[in-house]
Please model this.
Amino acid sequence: MIEAMRKAGLDLTIFFYNPNIHPRREYEIRKQENIRYARRNGIPFFDGDYDTETWFERVKGLEHEPERGERCGRCFDLRFERSALFAHENGFKVFTSSLGFSRWKRLEQVNESGERAASRYPGLTYWTHNWRKGGGQQRGIEISREEGFYRQGYCGCVYSLRDMRPRREHGKASME
Ligand code: SF4
Model:
């Protein structure tokens, strides 16, 4: 996504807000990978809070939902609402998300949530582009190899970590 945006001459900024990620060690690893890549490419990086209390409150009662279910919708909403606020407060007109890049996510669910968050602020748009298309997915894999990126074994939250074991046992480890 970043490469495509830079090639198109877009001026971009990374905002990292992922209080869903558990445990903290995993959160730090993923964040540091983002920072490393951003620094090397001269992209401004902004760090949102590791606001886990708000996240757990938001998904309460949905602990046993499967991935792509209602819990994920709430998780997206929280993260997009915070991102939309950041965009609004800092004068950005468009925002998008790496969530839409993962083949483990339902793109419609991601896009609906992004658009809902954008609609809170006049003049703000959520970019619903399908980053996987047009060779994007393959290029993502190549960049990941070239960069030696850390490969996450589960989506992020404590519940996806819990549910990872059965999936792995069936030989379908989740790699975003
Ligand atoms: S599985 Fe992923 S998207 Fe769904 S609630 Fe957990 S961290 Fe959020």
User: Anything to note?
Assistant: The pocket of iron/sulfur cluster is lined by residues 20, 59, 67, 71-72, 75, 155-157, 159-160 (CB under 6 Å). Residues 88 and 121 are 7 Å apart (CA to CA). The domain at 2-169 is CATH 3.40.50 (Rossmann fold). Residues 70-89 form the longest helix (20 residues).
